[in-house]
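**Discrete fold encoding**
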Amino acid sequence: MILGCSEKKLDYTGNTPLTINDFNKVFKGTNLPLTISDSNLHQQTDTLIIGRKALAQFVPDSIVENILSLKDKKAFLHPMIRIEKEEEYYLLLNVTHPKKQEIAVVVFSKKNKFIDYKIITEFNDENRSSKMYGKSLNINREPSFLVEENKLGDDNTLTYEKKGWAYTDSSFRLIYFDSNKKPETQKVINPLDTMSMNYTYSGDYARDNKNFISLRDYATQNKYQFFLHFEKQNGSCTGELKGILHFTKNQATYTEKGDPCIIHFTIQGNVINIKEDGNCGNHRNMTCYFNDSYDKKRKVKKKK
């Protein structure tokens, strides 16, 4: 009785300090593989509410804002499950909104240091128990997180989309994609369109308005900023990348710290050749590559 009375109920609002071990205790361990859908989501979600301030004791403020914005006064955080691995562990949160529920995954090192996060998927209340729509999150032992979405049209045509995510190379990356959805026709916005083109290689290299690379002046004569966009396989596979290139003669290589993607660029005459080297799956779909070549477009002369 003395021990029971001396036990203090932990405060998860964040108004008082928490230890990371006490925080982790509310996330129950689980056996994988595991499938979560809108029909069993409540079974995996604790009724306990975690305050933003509690999460912010262990996760950077900017990340907390992305998971649960201060503006979302009617949204709440609930603990779900904990996944233990050799070098890191994963905490799953259910972010409940008035008309939808999101699942966020937060990754910590074994030393309890925040590493990364991902909003894996959302379940909309309007689709719950629908015979025309189904969505599930499948978590395997790695773990990887496969989101599968199926929709039956009025003509009994089934459309599907599968996206697989995994924490690898220090961040969450798209590791699998498959879909039979028809791509939406959207105009590609070129963020470099109005910037100056006075250097030797500056200009637009393109096959059409959906497959192109733009080079623009940057800092010194050998440096260029670029924007690369492509849509292959009838638009079902797309890729996009923006960055800085430093040319040595006619060759340059894109590489950024923390990004396993490496792309080599070679310009010969009016043609730019692009060759992917490394894992660029974070910038494109998994079934196509940046490898291609584009012809330089003539500059449009301004009317006097």
